[in-house]
User: Fold Amidohydrolase family protein from Streptomyces indiaensis.
Amino acid sequence: MKDHAAESDAVRRFRERLGLPGLVDVHTHFMPERVLRKVWEYFDSLGPLTGGLEWPITYREAEAERTAILRGFGVRAFTSMLYPHKPGMARWLNGWAADFAHRTPDCLHTATLFPEPGVEAYVREAVEAGARLFKSHVQVGAYDPADELLRPAWGLLAEAGIPVVIHCGSGPAPGKHTGPGPIARVLAEHPRLRLIVAHMGMPEYEEFLDLAERYGEVRLDTTMAFTDFAEALMPLPRRALPRLAALGDRVLLGSDFPNIPYPYVHQLDALERLGLGEEWLRAVCHDNGAKLFRL
Ligand SMILES: [Zn+2]
Assistant:
C-alpha cells in the first residue's frame, strides 16, 4: 500500500477549515474484483470510452485498503457504483453490492439496472432489500434511458424517492444516447424522479443545469468536474458559476475514487477554488448528502 498519510492530512485540514464532521461522497466505485480489474484494464488501454485519454488510476490497492483510505480521508459515507454493459448482469451485481454494503456499514447500499425483461422485478427486490441509491450508466450501457423497458423501474424509483446517479452527459466521450435529450424525456414522464446527474453533466453542463432548474428533484454530482484534468478538456463556462451557486442545495460531492488520474484531495481543492464560499462547500461536501440519505 502506498503511503497516503500526507494526503489524509491535507483532506483533514480541508474538513477542519470548514468545520465538517466528515465527507459524504456519492460517487465511488466498488465492484466485484474481476469486474474492477476489467475496468482498470480498460483505462490502461485507452479505450474509446475514455476519449483516448491517458488515465493512470491513482488508487490500485486491494479492496480493504481502498475502504481504509476513504476512512482515512474522513469520508463518513460512500457508495459502490456499479453498472452492467450488457443484459443479464444487473441482478448479479446487485447481489454483490448488497453483500458489500452489509460488510461495509459506511457504504450506502447501491444497486443498478439495465433495459431488459425482468428489470422491474429486480429493481423492486433491491428496493425491498434496502437499496438506497441506484446507478445508471447510459454511456457504458449504450442504452436509451427512455427505453420502454425502463419505464416501470423509473416509476418505482420515483415513487420510493430513491436517488439514481446517472452518467448521461457526453464526457469523456459521447455515447449513442448521452446528452440532455434522452434524459429530458424520462423526466417529462417522471418529474419527481431523484436523478443525480454524474460529473455535473460534463461537457453539457449548462443543459443539465437547465434540467435541475426545471425539476426540483434533479441534483448533480461533482465527480471529476472542475479538476485540472476535466478543465483542460471540458471546461465549465464561467458564466455558469452563479447558477451553480444558486443550486448549492442540490450539488453533491462525488469523486470517482479509486479510478481517478490524480489524488482525491485535488477534487476538494477544485471545488474550493470555484470561490463559491464556505457555506456552499459545506453543503456540497457533507450536508446535502447527509440530508438526502438521512445520515
Ligand atoms: Zn464513475
Q: What stands out?
A: The two ends are 30 Å apart (CA to CA). The pocket of zinc ion is lined by residues 27, 29, 81, 223, 256 (CB under 6 Å). The chain is about 45% helix and 10% strand.
